[in-house]
Write a structure and sequence with these properties.
alpha+beta; 3-stranded antiparallel beta sheet; 3-stranded mixed beta sheet; 19% strand; globular; binds zinc ion
């Protein structure tokens, strides 16, 4: 990838974002010669793999669910949004670079645990202990919905 400003070919990827439907990858790049930044949009040949649940059904990878699961584990922990976004990004990149069409939900759960271990030990232990009792990440995120739903009901009740 050549720098559009100075033409140097040494550029580094500063940030990668994947579009909603998962097939356009937007990268923020930084030129190592002139330090200018630019973005590229690449239509990826590869797509996010489908997640294979323990019962054998396939579901689309869902960034929102993943994020909700992380935040549930991290509730009330001193962790920045940036750190969590970066963790999600690393998981997505790992999924994309593996290039597999499908990924077992256990593998996704393991990835989440590895990332949580890096950012917050308490959240890691929370997630690991709860997650292992569930079928898969989806079951965990269903719990997230219940918890956040209960919280909303609580708030509207003036608690
Ligand atoms: Zn440059």
């Amino acid at each position: 990838m050549k720098c559009p400003f100075c033409g140097a070919s040494d550029t580094t990827v500063a940030d990668t974002r994947i579009s909603e439907d998962g097939d356009v990858v937007r990268r923020r790049r930084r030129c190592l010669s002139c330090d200018k930044r630019f973005s590229t949009h690449e239509r990826a040949e590869i797509r996010m793999p489908r997640v294979v649940k323990k019962n054998g059904s396939r579901v689309d990878f869902d960034r929102e669910k993943l994020s909700a699961s992380l935040w549930l584990a991290l509730r009330k922990r001193p962790v920045t949004v940036e750190a969590v976004d970066a963790a999600i990004l690393r998981i997505e990149e790992k999924l994309l670079t593996q290039g597999e069409r499908e990924i077992p939900s256990e593998n996704l759960g393991e990835m989440v645990m590895r990332e949580l271990k890096k950012i917050d030990q308490v959240a890691y232990v929370r997630f690991a202990s709860v997650y292992r009792n569930f079928e898969d990440v989806d079951a965990f995120s269903d719990l997230v919905k219940e918890v956040s739903g209960a919280r909303r009901r609580g708030e509207s009740g003036g608690v």
